[in-house]
Design goal:
The protein is of the alpha+beta class. It is 26% helix and 24% strand.
């Protein structure tokens, strides 16, 4: 059955009305909800606010390094320490290393641009910080609905956004209702804020529908892969922050790693690989596993235990790739728009700040009895904010780094260190990530070491500890526009890159009757969105699965 047939048989849908609907229960969405309630209370104004979260609970889908700049949360909740925020491990040491296969070279701190320094920042579990933000939002009267995925945008007669529809529950793979079927619900709002994170499903649709990126550079993405370890006490240094560039990636591939020491003998380790890479044989997952074998890195994990795994894309294009953030009836905030600062590898502070700015614009409009129009005050406030200044200074980072490690490092150092980010020029990214992949005939396969089960691991054992789960027999949410493309184009021209770029083993080519057929193991999906971004023909479209599915990250 299609959506209209379901409505004809089971409709009409139930509907709830709110002043402000927020799609996504991450730092951006929750900060918007908190700020809206704060402002309304200060003005003796009653407003209703709800937050939809597709994860099984707040924080379930949150994954980040993470080193957090407290600048924005200081503005949102100045007494966050008194309120018991899980932001306790201050950065104590900062190291930046260039790696070769066997050696490491530390860059003296006096040579590092300010964007690579972390004095005054905190090493955190962003998932735990997000859960705490959820508690603060609920205490202010925000309605939070975890396990409900926003699957459809409601448009009004004047082409304005009027809210969203949650996904239907209890459909089988043929999209037929089962005994557990429930029709989706309409959440209607006077304004709707979209905070789905990188490559948000509805955000992507809004950008296309309203042509929000017509004058922007193509968005650039990186795939972040992360593990959480419990290490030997002798290998643990709370507050130590290490970033690396170079090996195991070649000098033409943008990327780098992080290694953050939290409290309780825990260490977060991860790698970000720019999805503009050219070699279809490259596997970001395998590159990350190989990275942990470097002599300077491996010693941290010897005798330790891996306790969590996850992956998520990040928006790395910065200010030059930022689309218009407002449209009739709503706005894009956080990584749904692309506010992450790639040069700092930080997005939580910008997510919080943009959530606040959009909420302030919405509350002001509501006070004037406006609804479903364009929140012009939001982009204007952003342009006058410290965040805009920060992103403007870093606007050329991705463009330079896409030209290679050495040239990019020189140019970023020149702009950020010598010129303080005050450059009279702007460098641009000209190609979307999927356009950068080259035919397999132009490259050689990469031989990766086999996992040892101690320091390095395979995909399936990794997915297992991500607590990923999807309801059985639901419609496959990794859809293909043309079922013949994987065999006829992706395999023949690009050697089946989806089986390597996916960090969860979702895509496999299985030989049947002498032909390699694509098998999609959608139950493994971590919701990272890499396939939606990197597929060379843009044939794969990630759509919202049934609410409550996907990973369930603990302290990631």
């Amino acid at each position: 059955m299609n959506a209209q047939e379901l409505l004809d048989q089971y409709g009409p849908r139930e509907s709830m009305e709110y002043d402000l609907v927020v799609v996504g229960g991450g730092p951006a969405g929750l900060s918007a909800a908190i700020r809206a309630k704060q402002l309304a209370a200060s003005q003796q104004q009653e407003i209703s606010v709800c937050v939809l979260e597709k994860g099984s609970e707040i924080g379930a889908h949150i994954l980040s390094g993470a080193v957090m700049d407290p600048k924005a949360i200081n503005e949102l909740l100045p007494n966050w320490q008194e309120l018991g925020a899980p932001i306790t491990t201050k950065v104590t040491q900062d190291r930046f290393l260039f790696l070769t296969a066997t050696n490491s070279y530390q860059v003296p701190n006096w040579m590092l641009p300010h964007c690579f320094k972390n004095e005054g920042n905190y090493v955190v579990s962003l998932a735990n910080v997000t859960r705490w933000l959820g508690q603060q939002a609920e205490a202010l009267g925000v309605d939070i609905f975890p396990g409900f995925a926003a699957a459809e945008i409601i448009y009004g007669q004047a082409n304005q956004v009027c809210g969203v529809v949650t996904g239907a529950m209890g459909l089988n793979q043929e999209k037929q209702p089962t005994d557990q079927f429930q029709l989706g619900m309409e959440l209607r709002g006077k304004y709707t804020l979209f905070a789905e994170g990188s490559r948000g499903n509805l955000g992507k649709q809004l950008i296309e529908h309203y042509s929000l990126d017509d004058i922007s550079d193509p968005q650039s993405y990186g795939l972040g892969i992360k593990e959480l370890w419990e290490v030997e006490p002798s290998n643990h240094h709370p507050g130590l922050v290490i970033h690396t560039a170079g090996w195991p990636l070649d000098s033409h591939t943008y990327g780098g790693s992080f290694l953050y020491h939290l409290e309780d003998n825990q260490v977060a380790v991860g790698m970000v690989v720019g999805l503009s890479y050219q070699n279809p044989y490259l596997s970001p997952f395998e590159e990350f596993q190989r990275y942990k074998l470097h002599p300077i890195i491996r010693k941290t994990f010897e005798g330790g235990k891996r306790i969590a795994y996850g992956a998520r894309t990040i928006t790395a294009g910065g200010l030059n790739s930022l689309p218009k953030t407002v449209f009739p009836g709503g706005a894009l905030i956080g990584c749904d728009a692309g506010f992450l600062n790639g040069s700092r590898i930080k997005g939580s502070h910008s997510a919080i700040k943009t959530g606040m700015l959009a909420a302030e614009a919405a509350v002001s409009a509501l006070k004037e009895n406006r609804s479903n129009d364009i929140l012009e005050a939001y982009p204007l406030a952003f342009e006058n904010s410290w965040l805009h200044k920060e992103l403007k200074q870093a606007r050329n980072f991705k463009a330079w780094m896409s030209k290679g490690l050495y040239f990019g490092t020189v140019m970023v150092g020149f702009e950020q260190k010598l010129l303080g980010g005050k450059t009279p020029w702007t460098a641009h990214v000209k190609h979307a990530d999927h356009e950068c992949l080259e035919p397999a005939a132009q490259h050689k396969p990469i031989e990766y070491p086999k996992p040892d089960g101690k320091i390095t691991f395979d995909r399936l054992s990794s997915v297992f500890i991500s607590n990923t789960n999807h309801a059985e027999n639901q419609p496959i949410h990794l859809t293909l526009k043309d079922n013949s493309v994987p065999e006829n184009i992706n395999m023949k021209i690009y050697a089946g890159p989806e089986q390597r770029y996916c960090p969860a083993g979702v895509y496999e080519f299985i030989e049947k009757d002498g032909v390699n057929r694509l098998q999609i193991n959608s139950q493994n999906c971590l919701h990272c969105k890499t396939c939606d971004i990197k597929d060379p023909t843009q044939n794969i479209v990630w759509v919202t699965p049934e609410g409550g599915g996907g990973p369930n990250y603990g302290a990631m």
